[in-house]
Amino acid sequence: MQMAISLGWHIILACFGVGMPALTVFAQWRGLRTGDEAYERLAHRWAKAMGVLFAVGAVSGTILSFEMGLLWPGLMATYGQVIGLPFALEGFAFFIEAVFLGIYLYAWNRLPPRLHLLTGLPVCVAGVASAFFVVSVNAWMNQPRGFDLTNGTVTGVRPWEAMFNPATPLQTVHMILAAFMVAGFGIAAVYAAAMLRGRRDRYHRIGLLLPFTAAAAITPVQIVIGDSLARFLAHHQPTKLAAMEGLNRTSSHVDLSLGGVYLDGRLRYALHIPDALSILVGFRPSTVVQGLDAVPAADRPPVTPVHLCFQVMVAIGLGLLLLGLWLGLTWWRRRDLPRSRWFLRLTVLSGPAAVVALETGWITTEVGRQPWVVWRHLRTADAVNPAPGLWAGLVVVLAVYVVLTVATVYVLNRLRTQRVTAPQEGWAEEFAP
User: Fold this and answer.
1) Closest to 144 measured CA to CA, from 120, 161, 169
2) pTM of the complete model beyond 0.70
3) Within this chain, do residues 173 and 310 fall inside the same structural domain, yes or no?
4) Rounded distance, CA 387 to CA 336, Å?
């Protein structure tokens, strides 16, 4: 529970750390190229919010690093030498991001504009690299490689093989795209809320259009990657796919189930598309899809949360795709935002919805692997710390995250309500009382 809360909280900040630098640097580049002051003001404002979120994310990330050793000694003691390389590389990426973010923030008016713009590029690259290295560890937990077991002891460690395991390409791309979607829809939601209150100037229109367009363009690509990942699971982690679909029996001509609740060993109240799951997995109706009955009951994940979270993630993804298509069709017809206020209302909801899709996706990934922390090698029960009294750490972590949440919301709200100035006016003037 402590790890779930910590990871679920930190991953939101991590997404903004991955996606927000690219949006900020692009806005600044666009402003320098066109001379449009609105882009420069947006970049200036987003850079400050980015600094706040990075600082808070550094705190929650540090907590997670301690929890890996404290809460999971069975995992780290046995396999720490296998997964140490990506964690070390992530540390280098973090420090590069921190150094260049500091330069980018505090050298805004102290360097020539184009040179200052270049200092933001390492922040973009390092943020994506950090996500890649961390998620490659999780991919390894789903497809462990790069070691030999000799009488129960790990030998012959091959760290590069472990990091670039079969699950790494799809899982890392899926997460990085999700990060850009969370950042894009999240930022757009703020400006959509302002436009609902009557702020229809160019600054707010671009503040909505730029991140929303980036996130909407990524959404169909993300759906394709998600489909490929599900097909990968059918061959490499079929029990997880069976839980995601609520499929109890192995068979061919398997229907694709939409919605439903898994009760008494079967999926009830779902909408079924005939043969669709077999076609998606093997491109023909006769494809055999493995069900939960292929493994002992002790090796099955809890189906209800996995199935429901997967359905929520897919539903939100399709909803965001339709919202992006709405804007795309309207822009193609008359180069403008949709006139309906419902578009702005749904854009406001798209920010929280993207976060919910992110969290439910991670629940699907983690709970769907149970009861294994390292797939078919180490059970979660054998990896977790058995020491009594760990509940105290959960209480402390909850208190820390409550304080961090309140402080973050307060500071971001202060940034939101401050006067929007041009970058040339500097930082001191904007923060002056």
Assistant:
1) 161
2) yes
3) yes
4) 60
**Using H for helix, E for strand and C for coil, what is the string for 381-426?**
HHHCCCCCCCHHHHHHHHHHHHHHHHHHHHHHHHHHHCCCCCHHHH
**What residues contact residue 307 under an 8 Å CB cut-off, 6+ apart?**
243, 244, 245, 246, 260, 262, 267
End-to-end CA distance of the chain: 43
Residue 238 to residue 6: CA distance in whole angstroms: 28
Domain boundaries, position 26: 1-161+392-433
What residue has token string 């050298």?
107
Residue 258 backbone phi and psi in degrees, to 5: -115, 120
Q: How far is 433 from 413, CA to CA, in rounded Å?
A: 16
Give yes or no: residues 156 and 248 share one domain. Answer: no
Shared-domain flag, residues 155 and 199: no
d(CA 338, CA 344): 8
Cβ atoms within 10 Å, residue 311: 20
The residues near 239 (Cβ < 8 Å, ≥ 6 apart) are 290, 292, 294, 295, 299, 300, 301
pLDDT of res. 360:
97
Q: Which long-range contacts (CB under 8 A, 24 or more apart) does 157-163 make?
A: 157/81, 157/82, 159/81, 159/82, 159/83, 159/84, 159/85, 160/85, 162/82, 162/83, 162/85, 163/83, 163/85, 163/86, 163/133, 163/136, 163/137
Domain end point (choices 369, 386, 403): 386
> Based on the domain organization, do 72 and 184 belong to the same domain?
no
Backbone dihedral region for residue 307 (phi beyond 0: left; psi -120 to 50: alpha; all else: beta): alpha
- Summarised one tens digit per residue, pLDDT across range 62-121 is 888 889 989 999 999 999 999 999 999 999 999 999 999 999 999 988 999 999 999 999
pLDDT tier at 431, thresholds 50, 70, 90: very low
The domain total for the chain is 2
Query: Are the CB atoms for 42 and 210 separated by under 8 Å?
Result: yes
**In Å, how far are 57, 82, 354, 382 from 90, measured between CA atoms?**
14, 15, 25, 27
Helix ranges restricted to H, 295-390: 303-334, 341-367, 380-383
Residue 54 falls in which region: left (phi positive, over 0), alpha (psi -120 to 50) or beta: alpha
* Type and span of the H or E element at 262: strand 261-263
Measured between alpha carbons, how far is residue 399 from residues 5, 11, 54, 392 in Å? 12, 18, 20, 11
Say yes or no: 113 and 207 in one domain: no
Beta-carbon contacts of residue 419 (< 8 Å; ≥ 6 apart): 430
